[in-house]
């Protein structure tokens, strides 16, 4: 039953019944509906702002999983890129040096693969994760191009190797003493502390320590052009002409096993470790002379070692310490 309302009439001094018109009822109803609508809108926006619908929650979960997979792909591509960089460096600094070929310019290796127009079809779809996907696809395309260039480079090197069989056999490419544990490389090429004068001085070879009498091996095929005995400097020394501009020197030997004019093969014993001349301990001082210029032998110690062992030899040779003579 509807509540009846009264008001006090000052003229009649009586309570009179309030008469409600249809217009008043209509206005009240409209006001009620307006307030209800406003409250409903506020609740709806509040819910959308703080709570996800089942579909939105599903899409957010899907996007999160997608981003996780893309991040994992990017990490994998970074690993592949690091390995590829090592191969590129080895190609430019070792293989192409060995075959006297020009290194591939970095501008060619890292050249772009076109703008975003390559991905026009993807852009037209209006994906929300557009930047994430574009960045990943561009990295992937760049990796693919670098791998293609590197594969073509290896094809060129294979062709050069086929045409330079004699060069490969003659090139000084092994360590002059047995060094399976990689513990005998004592001092590398470059500025080193002189063992006698105790000052920094250019060291033109690599010192390999070994017990007195340890066999010394020819680093490549060639002809013995010097067998000399000196009481200072290099002491007892042997030089081999390998052809193709390569000459190797082995110094501070205790005894010889070859004579001038003799042809030797890679790995053949040419003498024995000693400490003759200006030397502070038994070792062999090993040099490579290319076209009359003494060069760092370390990059040429690539034969009969694994990739990891080769990197270790380069690291040991780069350490600045004291030479042995």
Give the integer mean of the pLDDT values: 82
Biggest sheet statistics: 10 strands, antiparallel
Tally the helices. Answer: 7
Helical content band: 40-55%
Please tell me how large the radius of gyration is. 41 Å
Low-pLDDT segments, ≥5 res: none
Strand tally: 14
Order of helices and strands: EEHHHHHHEEEEEEEEEEEEH
CATH architecture of the largest domain: Distorted Sandwich
The best one-word shape is rod-shaped
CATH fold assignment of the largest domain: Glucose Permease (Domain IIA)
Return the domain count.
3
Portion in beta strands: 15-25%
- The termini sit apart by 119 Å
**Class inferred from helices and paired strands:** alpha+beta
CATH superfamily annotation of the largest domain: Glucose Permease (Domain IIA)
**CATH level 1 name of the largest domain:** Mainly Beta
How would you briefly describe this protein structure?
By secondary structure, the chain is α+β, with helices and mostly antiparallel strands. Helices cover 42% and strands 22% of the residues.
Description:
With 325 residues, the chain is an alpha+beta fold. The protein folds into 3 domains: 6-50; 54-163; 185-318, Glucose Permease (Domain IIA). 42% of the residues lie in helices and 22% in strands. It has helices at 22-50, 54-98, 106-109, 120-124, 130-163, 165-170, 307-318; strands spanning 6-9, 14-17, 185-187, 190-193, 200-203, 206-209, 215-217, 222-228, 236-243, 246-256, 263-264, 269-273, 283-290, 293-295. Strands 3, 6, 7, 8, 9, 10, 11, 12, 13 and 14 form a 10-stranded antiparallel β-sheet that branches. The longest helix has 45 residues, at 54-98. The N and C termini lie far apart (119 Å). The mean pLDDT is 82.
């Amino acid at each position: 039953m509807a509540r009846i309302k009264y008001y006090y009439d000052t003229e009649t001094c009586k309570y009179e019944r309030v008469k409600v018109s249809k217009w008043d009822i209509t206005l009240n109803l409209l006001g009620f509906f307006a307030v209800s609508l406003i409250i409903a809108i506020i609740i709806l926006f509040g819910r959308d702002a703080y709570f996800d619908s089942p579909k939105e929650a599903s899409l957010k979960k899907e996007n999160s999983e997608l981003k996780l997979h893309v991040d994992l792909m990017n990490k994998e591509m970074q690993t592949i890129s690091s390995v590829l960089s090592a191969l590129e460096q080895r190609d430019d600094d070792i293989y192409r040096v060995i075959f006297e070929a020009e290194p591939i310019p970095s501008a060619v290796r890292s050249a772009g693969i076109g703008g975003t127009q390559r991905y026009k079809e993807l852009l037209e779809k209006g994906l929300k994760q557009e930047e994430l996907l574009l960045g990943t696809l561009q990295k992937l395309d760049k990796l693919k191009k670098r791998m293609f260039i590197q594969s073509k480079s290896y094809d060129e090197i294979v062709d050069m190797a086929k045409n330079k069989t004699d060069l490969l056999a003659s090139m000084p490419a092994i360590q002059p003493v047995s060094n399976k544990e990689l513990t005998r490389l004592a001092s590398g090429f470059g500025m080193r502390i002189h063992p006698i004068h105790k000052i920094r001085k250019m060291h033109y070879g690599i010192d390999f320590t070994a017990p007195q009498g340890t066999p010394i091996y020819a680093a490549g095929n060639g002809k013995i052009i010097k067998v000399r005995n000196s009481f200072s400097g290099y002491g007892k020394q042997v030089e081999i002409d390998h052809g193709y501009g390569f000459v190797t020197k082995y110094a501070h030997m205790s005894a010889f096993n070859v004579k001038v004019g003799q042809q030797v093969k890679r790995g053949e014993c040419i003498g024995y470790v000693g400490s003759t001349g200006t030397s502070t301990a038994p070792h062999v001082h090993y040099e490579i002379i290319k076209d009359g210029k003494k060069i760092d032998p370390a990059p040429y110690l690539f034969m009969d070692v694994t990739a990891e062992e080769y990197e270790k030899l380069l690291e040991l040779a780069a350490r600045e310490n004291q030479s042995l003579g």
